[in-house]
């Protein structure tokens, strides 16, 4: 059973109480300062206050991160450029990736282009860090003997739809993140049993993912209602993460050799759908359409 710890409090205050170098991975999804209602006025500060707050919590985040640790920070369009500069120049973290999360649907704009992505910056504390590519590969489009059929690198543009109101796992939180997206961060940048920290845990997505992936996790959240909702969420039975990169259900073309195809289809579920039991039926419907095969009981 994963060791999960949830604190109702302020991220900066709680980070200051934590020992240095005690966390292996930080996944931070702070307020973007765009005026969202988190029930605490935390998302509408003067720009200078917001930037000072960002620098303060990131300074503490760096201190608690292990020397081989990784930090991912989500950000919207308004402050992303400032965030990059704070992480690299002010905090002295090491840049690794600028990930674009394409969320497909959202609010419309009449004078300008409708926003359809958030960014996720990946930095490490040093040049020595853990990254498990095999744990996050995506299925190839075609079978080719020269292709690595264990899968391709997912790249740095990721499509995950928001968790819609009709989704069984939708929580009463305005900016709930997709579990499938957080799953990729956790699998790539931590080992089983390691400690993952989410200093702005909201509806508890990171804790829920860590619970299922056998990581220890600590969440900090200011709003007591969200803390209580997270506790209820963690007690729910698990049937699969609430979202998936559509590529994970992709069935490669040209799996023409029967032995190759049989071996590949057997592996696909454990390689790509291991935590997505709820996507297996759709995957096999696709296999039937493409290759006329049904899943063996
Ligand atoms: C963008 S949301 C996080 C959403 C989360 N990733 C999820 O999937 O539900 C930011 C959260 O930070 C919380 N928050 C705002 N200021 C905070 C602070 N100083 N310390 C801790 N939490 C804070 C808000 O209440 C909100 O729930």
From TrEMBL:
Residues 23-231 form the DNA methylase N-4/N-6 domain. PROSITE patterns: N6_MTASE (PS00092). InterPro entries: DNA_methylase_N4/N6, DNA_methylase_N6_adenine_CS, RM_Methyltransferase, SAM-dependent_MTases_sf. Belongs to the N(4)/N(6)-methyltransferase family. Its EC number is 2.1.1.-. This is Methyltransferase. It comes from Flaviaesturariibacter amylovorans. SUPFAM superfamilies: S-adenosyl-L-methionine-dependent methyltransferases (SSF53335). It comes from the Bacteria. Keywords: Methyltransferase, Transferase. Pfam families: N6_N4_Mtase.
């Amino acid at each position: 059973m994963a060791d999960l710890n949830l604190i109702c409090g302020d991220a900066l205050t709680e980070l200051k109480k934590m020992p240095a170098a005690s966390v292996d991975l930080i996944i931070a999804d702070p307020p973007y300062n765009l005026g969202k209602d988190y029930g605490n006025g935390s998302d509408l500060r003067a720009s200078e206050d917001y930037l000072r707050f960002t620098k303060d919590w990131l300074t503490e985040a760096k201190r608690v991160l292990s020397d081989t640790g990784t930090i991912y920070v989500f950000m919207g369009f308004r402050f992303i450029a400032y965030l990059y500069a704070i992480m690299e120049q002010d905090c002295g973290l090491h840049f690794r990736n600028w990930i674009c999360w394409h969320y497909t649907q959202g609010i419309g704009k009449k004078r300008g282009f409708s926003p359809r992505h958030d960014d996720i910056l990946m930095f490490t504390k040093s040049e020595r860090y853990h990254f498990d590519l095999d744990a996050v590969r995506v299925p190839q489009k075609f079978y080719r003997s020269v292709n690595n059929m264990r899968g391709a690198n997912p790249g740095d543009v990721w499509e995950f739809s928001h968790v819609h109101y009709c989704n069984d796992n939708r929580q009463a939180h305005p900016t709930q993140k997709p579990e499938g997206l957080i799953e990729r961060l956790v699998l790539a940048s931590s080992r089983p049993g390691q400690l993952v920290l989410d200093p702005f845990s909201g509806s508890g997505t990171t804790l829920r993912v860590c619970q299922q992936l056998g990581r220890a996790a600590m969440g900090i959240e200011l709003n007591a209602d969200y803390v209580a909702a997270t506790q209820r969420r963690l007690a729910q039975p698990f049937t699969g993460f609430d979202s998936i990169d559509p590529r994970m259900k992709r069935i490669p073309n040209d799996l023409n050799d029967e032995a190759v195809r049989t071996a590949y289809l057997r592996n696909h579920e454990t390689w790509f759908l291991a935590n997505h039991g709820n996507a297996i039926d759709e995957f096999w419907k696709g296999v039937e359409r493409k290759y006329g095969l049904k899943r063996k009981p």
